[in-house]
Amino acid sequence: MNVLTFASNEELSAYAADYILDLVRAKPDAVLGLATGETPIGVYEQLVDRHRKSQISLRQVKAFNLDEYAGLSPDHEQSYQVYMRKHLFSGIDLPPEQAYIPCGIADDLWAAARDYDRLLNEAGPLDLQLLGIGHNGHIGFNEPGEELNAETHVVKLTEETRAANSRYFQSLAEVPQYAVTMGVGPIMRAKQVLLIVRGENKAGVLKKALYGPVTTRCPASLLQLHPRLTVLLDEGAAKEL
Ligand code: GLP
């Protein structure tokens, strides 16, 4: 595992954006696994900026997002569809039909999840999975528990996760109870994983994830087993390492 600490979010995000674009330069039809949350916003901003300035094209890239809230339509302000369009897809030349996000509103969410795995398997393995980490150690929406799912699945969000994400909604009651998430299989099969973590409030969970026991109680701890993991941190997140 390669752990790098940066003095500012700008530097961290710039490094991550360059890392991703270097991969696309070397492999224009790269398959990328993408994440949401507050942490990657700076990375996406810098990707858009670099794309504009450098003319690097992403039109052959395929992108698979980790997760989506169940029950939020693709135009709901807090859906990850809207997030991705707003922060990344509207600013790059990745064709919309090559940008996949789990479906949160299908009549049969489980059937839609299986379709997502089929698409992932046809395109995969992922060349790179960009990841954040939840306060409880979740990756995507793979929540801590007695077991983890390898495949895309419907998950009941923990109250901790709902509370953490309620800052984006009018109230806690509005935060969906369920989500659809990629399982840990494609993440662990990704050729490389880029984990980005910011803020002192993630320092404890990050230490557990990187140096604690490998356990389904901390899904991010599985990353210790990944053969090519790069971790990008700010000084706050690195505090307990
Ligand atoms: C969200 C997402 C995760 C993300 C995590 C941390 O709920 N499902 O993919 O990594 O929580 O988000 P943030 O960067 O906002 O702390």
Structure description:
- With 241 residues, this protein is of the alpha/beta class.
- The protein has a single domain, classed as Rossmann fold, CATH 3.40.50.1360.
- It is built from seven helices and ten strands.
- Strand 2, helix 2 and strand 3 form a beta-alpha-beta unit.
- The longest helix has 18 residues.
- The chain is globular.
- The chain starts with a strand and ends in a 7-residue tail after the last strand.
- The site of 2-amino-2-deoxy-6-O-phosphono-alpha-D-glucopyranose has 14 residues, from helix 5.
- 2-amino-2-deoxy-6-O-phosphono-alpha-D-glucopyranose (GLP) binds next to helix 5.
CATH topology, which one? Answer: Rossmann fold
Q: State the helicity in percent bands.
A: 25-40%
Q: Catalogue the ligands.
A: 2-amino-2-deoxy-6-O-phosphono-alpha-D-glucopyranose
Pattern of helices and strands:
EHEHEEHEHEEHEHEHE
Uncertain parts: none
* Helix/strand/pairing category: alpha/beta
Profile the largest sheet.
7 strands, parallel
Mean pLDDT: 97
Number of helices: 7
Number of extended strands: 10
Q: Regarding CATH, which class?
A: Alpha Beta
Q: Output the strand order for the largest sheet.
A: 1-10-9-6-2-3-5
What percent of residues are in strands? Answer: 15-25%
